[in-house]
Amino acid sequence: MKSYQAIAKYRCALKCFLSVKVPAICLFLVLNSISIHAQDEREDLKDIQDLIAQTKSQLASNLESSERIQQELKLAELEIAEAATKLNRTDQSLLKVNRDIKALRQEKTQTENLIEQQQTYLANQLKSAYMAGSYDYAKLLFNQDKAGTLERVLTYYQYLNKARQNQIDDFKGLIATLDKVRTELSAKQVNLEALKQTQVSQSKELRDKQQTRFQKLAVLNKQIESDQARVKRLEQQEKDLLSAIERAELAAKRAQASSNVDIDLSGLTKLKGQLMLPTPGKIERLFGKRRQGQVRWKGVVFQTTAGTPVSAVAEGQVLYADWLKGFGLVVIVDHGDGYMSVYGRNQAVLKNVGDVVRAGDTISLVGTSGGQTRASLYFELRHKGKALNPSQWLRRS
Questions:
Q1: CATH class of 227-392
Q2: Which pLDDT value is given to residue 82?
Q3: For residue 4, is pLDDT > 50?
Q4: What is the percentage of the chain residues whose pLDDT exceeds 90?
Q5: Distance between CA 332 and CA 357 in Å, rounded?
Q6: Where are the domains of the chain?
Q7: Cα–chain-centroid distance for residue 131?
Q8: Is the pLDDT reported for residue 331 higher than 90?
Q9: How far is Cα 318 from Cα 17, in angstroms, rounded to an integer?
Q10: Which of 295, 390, 296 lies closest to 342, judged by CA?
Q11: Which of 48, 129, 130, 388 is deepest in the core (most CB within 10 A)?
């Protein structure tokens, strides 16, 4: 603007000089003033150009830093996923150990009841033997008239002794069984304590990694400066998701062609309105609502607690199980006939690519991956790449 003003002054002075007889010294002073202003303007222009160059350089540096932080965020969340997976395995082991301990306790109780019964039987045997011992063996031996009675009594004594010996042996066997049960129970208790310590250690490791992730997330958020940048980022994230699905489909087709396993997946058409919920919780984001600019939600968000199991909504085969920018740890299940379900923001993935899952099978755990500050599950349904409204397909809770 100032440059235009200087040029206007120059034109005005020149016009006056041509139309009016103005002293040459006056014209020189005017032109000199214009020259000084023009030089100032050139210096201002150079400053502006330098500032633009610095801004471009800073922008490039910020973009590079943003990409680096994204990679660091990915690594941190993958480490969290590994720790969470170990923790889940420990929990499953703890459940099994608890079931085993419960079974051993029941066996112990049953054994103790059996021992008590044997003790009662043994007492009765001893009582019978005592009563039978009132016979006089000498009289019986010399009383030949009652030889049959003698034979019966001797047989009865033999029977009692044999039965008593067998029950004593059984009693000793039951004692040995009880000792074995107690030993196994003690060993299980030791293992249980060790598993508890492992669980505590893994929980601390998980919390530390989450804290690191939140710090990196705070730095990353500072790189996003405008709504336009957010829109571009969201659009790119959706393209990345579609690209990941396409790559996974091609890989699945190649794997299926070289595999002898034939899986018959008929799609979800007959299950519309009957699909089970992927996880309990409140649906906070609704399909089709404006997200940022012209970008709209292609799925829904379930708000729930971290570590909550995520279930496959229907039978299918795991097509994708990896980290994806903006979505965090993602599981994609192929249901056949072009139907797919997408589960994002997971804390841990419990299934591998190629695994066959049934409706209700746990495939992952709810988390905060992908740059989220609150635990949630992002869920999509797609048919041949087109996003479907999950509320029309999920069973009403």
A1: mainly beta
A2: 84
A3: no
A4: 23
A5: 11
A6: 2-68, 83-223, 227-392
A7: 73
A8: yes
A9: 86
A10: 390
A11: 388
